[in-house]
Design a protein that fits this description.
Blueprint: H1 6-26
Length: about 25
């Protein structure tokens, strides 16, 4: 399992935000 480093957490946050914006776009 990957340890949650600051960079990894930031990337995860950016990814989740992008996913949410895409869902909103297609709605």
């Amino acid at each position: 399992m990957l340890r949650s480093t600051p960079t990894f957490t930031k990337q995860k946050k950016i990814y989740s935000i992008a996913l949410m914006s895409m869902i909103l776009l297609y709605m």
